[in-house]
Amino acid sequence: MLRTDFVVGWKNIRREDYVGYSCGYDRRQTAVATTNGAGPRNTQIFVLSPDLVVLHALPGFWHPDDLARELRFAKRIAKLWEDQGKSVETKTRMYRRMHRREVYTQSPETYARSTWQNFDAHFERHRGQSERRDTFLRDANGEPVTEANGTWRMKPINVLVHERMSRRPFVAWDDFDLDAFVDYGTLHYDNNRGVDRRHREFRGQERLKKQRERATR
Question: Residue 40 and residue 189: Cα distance in Å, rounded?
Fold first, then answer.
């Protein structure tokens, strides 16, 4: 599908402001046995129209089967965007309805692969004590749903992504609020406790972190 239906490109985002401080990986490594949406600040998959409208976006890594389904969904969104017989208002209503329906029709396997990594969930629950977050399931009164152990229940990542995209119908690439879109989980993850394969510190990454901190003061 990627070979026949998409024009594929990539961009180095290492110096972008929204990128997290993940250490312990290099470009020769691949993600194995991770969950959908893991590493949202460091990897994103975008599907754009020829006129550079964001049709769909996936933060982080995704299981191949789930990625294939999301790409097929993006193709349906593309057909809607290209339909010259519908007004923008009609397209927007249909776009939001398609995202809601997609969440309800995804498989139990997709939901099982869309659970939170423990450290990301812990960070979100801590953050949710001081600000309202869209990452928690809520009851009819808007209160967070709790697990048996009393912790707040997280939305599955696939649900969170489709909800966030449903609030961003046909946004131009230049206007897409990427920082807010990928804002969930912890900003820093160190896979190898501060050192690379040769046991050297991640000095380049630490320099970038300090530069960005100075820029925000």
Answer: 12
Each residue's pLDDT tens digit, 95-113 = 999 999 999 999 999 999 9
Contact 14, 7 (CB under 8 A): no
Judge whether 81 lies within some domain.
yes
If residue 172 lies in a helix (H) or strand (E), which one and from where to where?
A: strand 171-172
Q: Find the length of the chain.
A: 217
Per the model's pLDDT, the better-predicted residue between 85 and 31 turns out to be 85
- DSSP annotation of 68 reads H
Tens digit of each residue's pLDDT (9 = 90 or more) over 64-75: 999 999 999 999
Q: E strand or H helix at 47, and its extent? A: strand 44-48
130 is a domain residue: no
Angle between helices 157-166 and 88-105 (to 10 degrees): 170
CA-atom Rg of the chain in angstroms: 18
Decide: helix, strand or coil at residue 188: strand
Query: What tokens appear for 172 in the block?
Result: 């131009």
DSSP 173: G
pLDDT at 1 (0 to 100): 85
The answer to whether position 149 is within a domain reads no
Terminal Cα distance for the chain, rounded? 45
